[in-house]
User: What shape does this take?
Amino acid sequence: MHVFERWESEIRGYSRAYPTVFASARGATMTDEAGRSYIDFFAGAGVLNFGHNNPRMKEAIIAFLEADGMIHSLDMATTPKREFIQAFVDTILAPRGWDHRLQFMGPTGTNAVEAALKLARRVTGRSTVVAFSHGFHGMTLGALACTANQYFRNAAGVPLQHVIRLPFENAPGGGVDALRQAACAWEDPSAGLEPPAAVVLEVIQAEGGVNVASREWLHAAQAFARHHGALLIVDDIQAGCGRTGSYFSFDGMDLDPDIVCLAKGIGGFGTPMAMNLVKPEHDRHWSPGEHTGTFRGQGISFVAGREALRYFEDDSLMGEVREKGATMRTALQDLAERHPAHRFAVRGRGMMQAIDVHDGALAKDVARRCFESGLVIGPCGSGGRVLKLIPPLTIERDQLDRGLAILGDALDAAIREAE
Ligand SMILES: Cc1ncc(COP(=O)(O)O)c(C=O)c1O
Assistant: This one.
């Protein structure tokens, strides 16, 4: 670790939590330079939905490289880009009857959120955005203004403005009625509230502690947006792309977002890509090249991302996700029941499941023990008190079971020692 400690910025985070040097990875297994292997329940924070070095994608990328394919092209028209777009339309948009346009931008999630906010403000001519407590939308200033976590906000160095934050469904003061009442405040002409440009939300707040919004609450948020002429922006950057057992986290809920932000998993291989789905009536407000970026789509990501879309041509992977998700949930519930005095809460959907141990120090200790026993797992939520499980969707069942057993043993041991 010497090179990292000597030369890399103080900002480094995960290399402190997982203090080893990883050398290779395949599927849901990461191997360090000492030859020790770890089961990956973190999947690059939701990037590696299809596993490390997915063989189908690797093969397609190698063929693409050998053919001297277009690796970089700004946003010029290229063969891999056309194949990705067409596959996305055929596999994801057409079955849902959607006509959204695909906007590419710089390749990280925060870029997608920035573009969505900019467009919503352009379309409505307004500046205020409604976001929610515990929401996480990225680190650049516009997205950071929507991100709730104070630790991240404190690093901004400038006021983070033009966002009004309401409580998320399961937060103190939250809930469907609370959201409806809060929304009523805008009805009062003397409330001093500017009509909003957008309502931006995660259907499942991933970094915020795996808080799952109900269909009813989401519809209340959508109704609020519609009533005030604001755009509904769904940030599906971590919960989308198959994580919950369907392509979008809101599939089957009859939600009608104006903009959907996607990133992380859509590049398929761990290669970066971000993309917004934008209703055409909003998209026409952009002028050519107005929201630019050097890496607006990238050849290898298009090739791997196109392969990833094959997993959505039928229901076999999504069926597996729902089954494996149920296994994860049962294991966490058993764990919570083993320690009734602690009143641990289990939350999640599909293969994003979590156990809230209500104590950041305990969660950190459990994650450390897991790491020592060969499992990579990341805490999230307020003070890091929630252990979030997001293994690759393609993880083998026996590996999933082994990982869950390691987690169970680690939590049992951490509690025993603390008592
Ligand atoms: C829901 C959500 N939105 C936005 C982001 C920001 O993405 P990135 O870190 O790629 O900028 C994240 C990252 O974790 C996220 O989970």
